[in-house]
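Complex 227.
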Amino acid sequence: MSGSTENNATTDQAASGSSGLPGRLPRPAVGRLSLYFRELHRLADQGVSHVNSKELGALVDVSPAVVRRDLSSLGTIGRRGVGYAIDTLIDQIGLVLGSDVQWQVVLVGVGSLGNALLRYRGFERLGFRLTAAFDLDPSKIGNQVGGVSVWDAATMVGKLAELSPDLAILAVPAEQATAVASDLVASGVNGILNFAPTTLRLPRKVAVVNVDLASELQRLAFSVQNQ
Ligand SMILES: NC(=O)c1ccc[n+]([C@@H]2O[C@H](COP(=O)([O-])OP(=O)(O)OC[C@H]3O[C@@H](n4cnc5c(N)ncnc54)[C@H](O)[C@@H]3O)[C@@H](O)[C@H]2O)c1
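Predicted structure with nicotinamide-adenine-dinucleotide bound:
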């Protein structure tokens, strides 16, 4: 299991100015909170009510001391012999990560990847609501994918003015990515999850997270080779 943000297939290009994350939390800690959050939900689904730092640490591959430090930075102290109440932790971490609010998200590029992302049911639970998708391929425009309507990319700017999304997922070919990202930013999008293998040149106020599975695979191969 990937236990640290350093192992995640993401890199940040800019500070997340509007994300609501408290400045006092370093980014690796925020990444770990996200992993705790996922595991806590899983435990809650299994009917578990409490978890201790050793158990939670084992689930995300960090030491109990790190778990205690991260959670105490939220003002949460576990009770000896009982651990942490899972419901309370979910609420507190959700508050810090902004999962208590609904984020409106649009997706651009309904190809193989965009299709899979639109069909993924895991976003909603974390407060991300996919409200629209855009593509320029006439055979895709007007379709519904995962319950989300695909609109003509030529109408994107007007549609964005109507929807006012906070975030966007970019799944277009690399050559198209910067132009599409610029339109998104001009339309008020503050954060972009970029799957295109290119560095977006955008104003610093815009938060960009790049996801590059190919380079993560390369890192994995390097690790295996050098074990
Ligand atoms: N990060 C990763 O791990 C990862 C994995 C797979 C693919 N990718 C990247 O994600 C992107 C999408 O990959 P894919 O396999 O889904 O490609 P794809 O060719 O199947 O889909 C791309 C889609 O974007 C649409 N498109 C092109 N230009 C557009 C524009 N200006 N506005 C709106 N839509 C536009 C196309 O019509 C198509 O439907 C590529 O950049 C690819 O390199 C990244």
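The two ends are 17 Å apart (CA to CA).
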